[in-house]
Write a structure and sequence with these properties.
PEP-CTERM/XrtA_GlycosylTrfase; Rossmann fold; six-stranded parallel β-sheet; 46% helix; Glycosyltransferase_grp1; eight-stranded mixed β-sheet; globular; alpha/beta; Glyco_trans_4-like_N
Length: 404
């Protein structure tokens, strides 16, 4: 089986998107499949037309001249389609596998129809909802509605559709998409990368003033929908209950300046530590310092529909997880077993939940083991990737599928 993946971006860039892609490609290689990828104009400049990163081949697209919406997007689609077409000549795939956003699907569909190749479209989040979550779009606006219509059209034209969670599947079914056309390929963890519990770096703990502290942490991107303002707002209440409480925030993003101002004005300012972005190979040092990873996502369409990756990575490393009670988290976390759920958009509720977790340290070994076992059994990419096999085979050999 030869699969050409069509991507917004990929390695060596570091993002949840890139790491999910790496996990899929590596797991497919382990099954003996031949894989290659094409990254779109938004990946950024590359010195080479084709790059091999971590044993994976990426064909790069040169970004066209920028232009206002929608001309800019159509230029991107045209440039991307040409590059995908050239990659098809070079790689000779059996199947095209496009990953969201929808621009990738539109570009891939142009090539698929011209070349007579089947196309799987995999949706990790709806682009229109991601724009709202990132603060670059407004729900219900003309652009939102046009993007949603393009998404629905691409799903209808694709030969098969994969989604990362039940929330996205249910939404597509409500749009009139045949349930039989949709498979769920849930977020998973590459246990070769995240399957080992990190050791505590005593020197780093001392440097940050965390010795003897009850340490809460967040490692990721600082977007509004992540609810980090609620976590910071919870700190004075948590410190009143747990004077040794410390909050460590690792990463960065558009909300960072506002969050720093909020923290500086807080009565718990001395308990809040901004680390900034750190190299990927250093992230494990910070995981090792944190007792509880907190994910206080706000309640909105994006967070109710989409499951995040970070809580699974934390569970795999035997970290405790606390998260807001939104739909995406409920697909991953069983309250009181694999993690703790607290009310969304509620700083007091966050403080109460975290305080209760620190007061119940006796349960921590059991909860850590239960969470890791869940990831290993149900969210491990080495087994999750097998879900693609019957879909690919039905598209590449439809007559054989009909016989079965």
């Amino acid at each position: 089986m030869r699969i050409l993946h069509i991507l917004d971006h990929g390695l060596p860039l570091h993002s949840g998107y890139a790491f999910r892609t790496r996990a899929i490609l590596k797991a497919q290689q382990a099954l003996g499949w031949d894989v290659a990828s094409v990254t779109g104009p938004r990946h950024g400049d590359s010195d080479a037309g084709v790059e091999v990163v971590d044993g994976l081949t990426f064909h790069r697209t040169i970004a066209p001249a920028k232009a206002p919406t929608p001309l800019g997007e159509w230029r991107e689609i045209r440039a991307f389609s040409k590059r995908i077409d050239a990659a098809v000549d070079a790689f000779r795939p059996d199947i095209l596998h496009a990953h969201s956003p929808v621009l990738d699907a539109i570009a891939g569909l142009r090539v698929a129809r011209r070349r007579g190749l089947p196309l799987v479209y995999e949706i990790r989040a709806f682009w229109e909802d991601a724009a709202v979550g990132n603060g670059t779009g407004t729900e219900g606006s003309l652009r939102y509605r046009l993007t949603k219509a393009a998404e629905t059209r691409a799903v209808k034209q694709a030969d098969a559709v994969a989604v990362i969670c039940e929330g996205l599947r249910d939404d597509l079914i409500a749009r009139g998409i045949d349930p039989a056309k949709i498979m769920v390929s849930p977020n998973g963890v590459d246990m070769t990368l995240f399957g080992t519990a990190p050791t505590r770096d005593a020197a780093l703990a001392a440097e940050l003033g965390l010795d003897g502290g009850d340490v809460i942490g967040f490692i990721g991107s600082f977007y509004d929908y992540e609810g980090l303002d609620d976590l910071i707002a919870a700190m004075p209440m948590l410190v009143a209950k747990r004077p040794a409480a410390q909050l460590v925030l690792v990463g960065g993003g558009p909300e960072e300046p506002a969050l720093r101002r909020q923290a500086e004005a807080s009565s718990a300012a001395g308990h809040i530590h901004f680390i900034g972005r750190v190299p990927h190979d250093q992230v494990e040092r910070y995981y090792g310092l944190i007792d509880i990873l907190a994910y206080p996502r706000k309640r909105m369409r994006l967070t109710d529909l989409v499951t995040p990756l970070k809580p699974l990575e934390a569970m795999a490393q035997e970290r405790l997880v606390a998260a807001s009670d939104v739909g995406g988290h409920r697909e991953l976390i069983r309250d009181g077993e694999t993690g703790t759920l607290f009310p969304p958009d509620d700083p007091a509720g966050i403080a109460d939940a975290l305080s209760a977790m620190f007061a119940d340290r006796e349960s921590w070994p059991r909860r850590r083991a239960t969470a890791r076992a869940f990831v290993e059994a149900e969210r491990n990419w080495s087994s999750n990737v097998s879900r693609y096999d019957p879909v690919y085979r039905a598209l590449v050999h439809p007559s054989e599928s009909d016989k079965s």
